[in-house]
Write a structure and sequence with these properties.
single chain; 116 residues; mainly beta; seven-stranded mixed sheet; four-stranded antiparallel sheet; globular
Length: 116
């Protein structure tokens, strides 16, 4: 098992930036996939960005060019730099980790609110 702890959420104005970080309770070298989902009330959780252990990255179309995901296995962290924020980025952001073919592990979530 792995515990995940997010930090860095909060309030930003449209056009501003926030950085989310997620610290894992164990080494991430053997974790195949890490990243971020987000969820707004009444909607399904959606993938924002993911990064594999070999550095392959996937972004949601809605965040391409604005968000950047990075991973530091030496520090057991994954981060999400969010620039040019929009009100529609408002959501609870969840960090995830997965070792194939096992289950997803989730953080507790961090609120991101973008005001117009």
């Amino acid at each position: 098992q792995v515990q995940l702890a997010e930090s860095g959420g909060g309030l930003a104005q449209a056009g501003g930036s926030l950085r989310l970080s997620c610290a894992a309770s164990r080494s991430t070298f053997s974790i195949n996939d890490m990243g971020w989902y987000r969820q707004v009330p009444g909607k399904q959780r959606e993938l924002v960005a993911g990064i594999t252990s070999i550095g392959s990255i996937n972004y949601a179309d809605s965040v391409k060019g604005r968000f950047t995901i990075s991973r530091d296995n030496a520090k057991n962290t994954v981060s999400l730099q969010m620039n040019s924020l929009k009100p529609e980025d408002t959501a609870v952001y969840y960090c995830y980790a997965r070792r194939y073919p096992g289950p997803y592990y989730w953080g507790q979530g961090t609120q991101v609110t973008v005001s117009s």
